[in-house]
Specification:
Blueprint lengths: L8 E2 L1 H11 L6 E5 L12 E2 L9 E2 L3 E4 L21 E3 L11 E4 L3 E3 L6 E3 L10 E2 L10 E3 L7 H9 L4 E5 L3 E6 L4 E2 L10 E2 L2 H11 L3 E4 L7 H14 L2 E5 L10 H8 L1 E4 L1 E2 L1 E2 L5 E5 L2 E6 L3 H20 L7 E6 L32 E10 L5 E5 L15 E6 L12 E6 L2
Parallel strand pairs: 1-19, 13-16, 13-17, 14-15, 17-22, 20-24, 23-25
Antiparallel strand pairs: 2-12, 3-11, 4-10, 5-6, 5-7, 8-9, 18-21, 21-22, 23-27, 24-25, 24-26, 26-27
Helix pairs in contact: 1-6, 3-6
Length: 420
């Protein structure tokens, strides 16, 4: 049996710190049509290409007049002629030639055939009711800063600056690598003892959702040679590698050894479950995020550890948002993790002993607003990440499970992290 006594275990906070400090990216940019840029990150500032408006413009549905006629009070309009003393002016349209002031139509009284006109309110001054040329933006004005995520509203703002294309950060190529002799692709007959590889579908969708370009490698068998070749090939093609499975302590788990031999590994495992065997390393200058094989762990450990790496690539905040909530129902199911102390300890053979003193159980929670306005948290049916009924959950909670810890009670305020 291989020696795993030197495996470094860290907590989630330390793991994220290590990831963010050791991911080094130099993203390139590309020009894309604005209609294809929604959700992308701007690679450079966007400035206006014109003055908007480019002439004196009416701000509302109005009647255009000459300020000189109102400068000394309400004029006699009995002989006014449309096109000479007044003219219709509509919202966002250039003021009629020669007119400089607008009075909103609600303060205008028209005769039946619109040949006579009078007013029940005076304009406040010259150019009232109008927008000056360049009042919304002037050529060269900064419209949107580099690093901004393009939303539909921001896209419209960019277009209003007379842009059809924008420079965006190229999507990071994130390669998902499933490993394991027991895995087979979906479809067809499943041999005895084999299992369908399904994590790639879930993780690829997350990668795309977070702005990356997902790449899925073929299933890698559990041999050192196959894994070594696959990892180096992946590092040559990808910005980030997600190594799935092969990170535990089975006799066919070679992921950790390969990273130690061929690159650098910063931690081997984390002090929470599911997802205990999460790891992080660098191979050929490419970050390798190791996640556990079972879907229950893989589902949220990518949120915990792949999401921060991708946000570092984009120059965005890598931390999941945290909020305080009130526990609306006891969580229950608090399984104690404690290290057997000598021969007298009554440990079950199927229970993994705790390593490093502290261990957390990851609970997945649904958030609702209480009657008093306070946000409350309720457990999903199973409380385990990865289950179908848990997909509607909003937040994660790291519940202490080591000896001497008091489980949170209904009504307690707890800190949770929002799913990305």
């Amino acid at each position: 049996m291989r020696d795993h006594s030197n495996h470094r275990q860290v907590n989630k906070q330390e793991a994220v710190r290590i990831i963010t400090e050791n991911c080094r990216f130099t993203p390139e940019s590309e020009s894309v049509p604005i209609q294809e840029a929604i959700g992308r990150i701007l690679a450079q500032d966007v400035c206006a290409n014109w003055d908007n408006p480019n002439t004196l413009t009416c701000r509302m549905d109005s009647v255009a007049v000459h300020w000189a006629d109102f400068e000394h009070g309400m004029p006699d309009t009995s002989d006014w002629v449309r096109g000479k003393q007044w003219e219709f002016a509509n919202t966002g349209v250039a003021m009629p030639q020669g007119f400089d002031t607008a009075i909103v139509v609600e303060h205008v009284v028209f005769s039946e055939n619109d040949t006579k006109i009078s007013f029940d309110a005076l304009p406040s001054g010259k150019y009232a009711g109008t927008s000056a040329a360049g009042s919304k933006m002037k050529k060269g004005d900064l419209l949107v800063e580099k690093g901004t995520k393009i939303t539909p509203l921001i896209a419209a703002h960019i277009v209003s600056g007379n842009h059809t294309h924008v420079q965006v950060v190229k999507k990071p190529k994130v390669l998902f690598m499933p490993t394991g002799n027991e895995l087979v692709p979906v479809g067809g007959e499943i041999p005895k003892g084999k299992n369908i590889e399904s994590n790639s579908y879930m993780i690829a969708a997350k990668i795309e959702q977070w702005g990356g370009e997902p790449m899925v490698a073929d299933i890698v068998p559990d041999t050192k040679e196959a894994l070594k070749k696959a990892l180096h090939d992946a590092a040559a093609r990808a910005d980030i590698i997600v190594l799935n499975a092969g990170s535990s302590k089975g006799n066919d788990d070679w992921g950790i050894e390969m990273l130690e031999e061929e690159g650098t590994i910063f931690y081997h495992q984390t002090n929470h479950g599911p997802g205990h065997h999460s790891s992080f390393g660098i191979l050929d200058e490419t970050p390798v995020v190791g996640i556990s094989g079972p879907p229950a762990g893989a589902a949220f450990t990518t949120d915990y550890y792949l999401y921060p790496a991708m946000m570092v690539y984009f120059g965005k905040n890598p931390m999941l948002s945290k909020i305080k909530v009130r526990l609306g129902q006891e969580l229950g199911g608090m399984k104690k993790h404690q290290k057997p102390a000598g021969d007298s300890a009554k440990a079950k053979g199927e229970d993994r002993p705790m390593e490093g003193g502290e261990f957390y159980s990851v609970k997945q929670l649904i958030l609702r607003q209480g009657e008093d306005g306070v946000i409350e948290a309720y457990p999903t049916k199973t409380m385990r990440p990865g289950a179908v009924e848990a997909e509607g959950a909003d937040a994660y909670y790291l519940m202490p499970t080591w000896e001497g810890q008091r489980p949170p009670q209904k009504g307690d305020m707890i800190e949770v992290e929002l799913r990305p």
